[in-house]
Amino acid sequence: MKKSILLLATLLCGHSLAWGTGNVSQDKDSIAMHKSISEVVVYAQRSTVQITPEKRVIHIGSSPIASSGNAYLVLKNLPGILINSDGSVFMNGKSGVKVLIDGKSSYLEGTELVNYLMSLPASSLDKVELVTRPSAKYEASGNAGIIDICTKRNNQSGFSLNVHGNYEQGKYGRTNDNLSFSYRRNQLNLSGMYGYYRGHDFNDLTIARYYPETPTEQAMVFDQDSYRRRSDYSHYANFSMDYYVTPKTTFGIALKGNISDRTENGSLSSLFHAPAAQADSTLRSLTDNGQKRTNVTSSLTFQHKIDSLGKTVSASVDGLYYSVKEDQWHNDRVTISSVRNTESTSKAFKDGTIKMISGRMDLIWPVSDKLRFEGGAKSDLVRIDNRSDYANLAGSQWVADQTLSSTFYYRENINALYVTAKVQKGAFVTEAGVRVENTNIKVASFSQSYTDLFPNLSVSWQLPHNNSLNVTYGKRVDRPNYRYLNPFVYIFDTYTYEQGNTNLKPQFTDRFDLIYLIRKNYRFGLFYTDTRQAIIKSYSVQSGSRRVYVMPTNTTYYRSYGVQGDIGQIPVARWFQSGMHLELTQNNYKWEENDISLRNRKLTFQIGIQNKIRLPWSCAVEISGFYNSEMAYGQVNVLPVWQLSGGIQKNLCKGNATLSVFSNDWFHSNKSRIKGDFSGTQASVTDFQDRCIVGVSVTYRFKKGEETKESKSGKSFYDSKRINL
User: Fold this and answer.
1) What is the pLDDT of residue 525?
2) Which whole number is the average pLDDT over 69-78?
3) Beta strand pairing call for 496-499 and 548-554
4) How far is 481 from 478, CA to CA, in rounded Å?
5) Which end of the chain has fewer CB atoms < 10 Å from its terminal CB, N or C?
6) Are 358 and 380 in contact, with CB atoms under 8 Å apart?
7) Does residue 9 surpass a pLDDT of 60?
């Protein structure tokens, strides 16, 4: 009788009642039951983390911390995820991560990606999938893996309306509010959302450099402090419609748009002096930047289920329009001992657009429950047109600076075919696939075409008690993002320039994994990756001016290997569960500088812990934290970073409302710190941002209708682009 009640409770709740272990015998200790003559009351809590050999899945709604704020904060709070101030994303100690939204590319990277994620409210998210071993149906890019941010889907017949408000306070305040709706009746399914973000942030940056003595120059120390205040305003909206022509045929349309406006102003001061001496020159800079971005995507989809076995054909066409306009004003005043002041003023205007159209078709063809085939084709067309105009103030007149002004025209066409086969024989499950990608690029008068094969192989040995041993191999490619190819020059100050590189080549990675999965809750593994022509940022010092140029280049190789472990949920007590992520990674970089081979090696340790406590009165408390030791990243090292956060969540109004109070980065320890030694010049950078916050989030759900069972279908995956103008 007890087992029957437990199985019924599992079906009603729709998830495991044993903190994600999926073991009925363990579920008995995780359920508090009150029996009476007329009723049986079951209390259960959805597991926050689910683990498979290929990925970790984090359910956002069951986390008081992750479900508050925006998608950017969600990622920053996840164990194993590290985001630098420039928008570069690391997963499990490795760079080269692609971010998808609902299985499709966000088409953004770097600061453009950060701006977009800040406009996407966490209340609209369902889960985040951290895919470390993508199959051939995924795009071939992303050597470190894929982060798929999945938004909530409408699974209710009738009408629903959700109102969400979020406010957080650090040094400055930020608010992220949205209104979403869904309507489903008969053959029509509609959903949409409008969100508004408004907030202020700061960037407190310190830079220290030591220039060694040369035959023509004495040793010099450079100290710089800068403070910039940012104001962001953005509007985000989406709308989707699915029309079920028949129970087997569906047509869909989706529109998404994001408009953002950022202003940034601040000052910096720089001092030059000999070691152990007073400053002999100072630099004071003022800067004002204004940026306006527009990002619009559209999608048409079709899906037809051929039979009850699961044979399915689907097709889609996607379009993207992205534009950015930026104005920059810069003033430098240099004071040298015993010499009069010198002053220079410059301005810049940048205007860029990116247009993309993508089409694809996929076929799922199961032959039996032991054999399954999948295949598909896709084609992308990308067009980029950018220009940058610089001018210097001479007296009262602006004079064009032709040495910095430039134009950038880029055309790209990627065509791909893939096929996978999955076969089960006895206790062994083998999945093999291959993806063929043909790339055609044209930059100004330079053209390039190449075709590559990207095989994937996975062999799983199914053991008793839900255990398995998995061996996987995959080949990946990462093409340079568009900003890295763009020759535009960004002037941070007189002594720091950053510029793109039109000669960049794609990097290719081979990855091997050995994974042991226990009860679908504990995962332990070994991994090895070998990346050729790895893309990293290089740093060089211009002789005479001591100006540092930052430019992306290809290294000789990047190799990484190590061990990793994941614990989905440990039922410490019926009211207390804990999850953990551990990783020990050795990163090795090798590159050539002035015909000399140089290396950067570092062993990195990572740990992330999530503790969740269930309290009475429909309350849940979460305390989470992570630590990432020093990590090699190209020519520089990222210094240790750690964070502690917490939150409490309570359901109100018979489950129709949710109140969350959260606090992130309690000790303001999640800051970017970098050090490096290039061309004999030693440098260190510390970057503070407004991430030590306290916030409150409220959601109310109006609904009228009945829950309906949603049929599951395979996602469509699209290649991540590398947009970062």
Assistant:
1) 93
2) 78
3) parallel
4) 9
5) N
6) yes
7) no
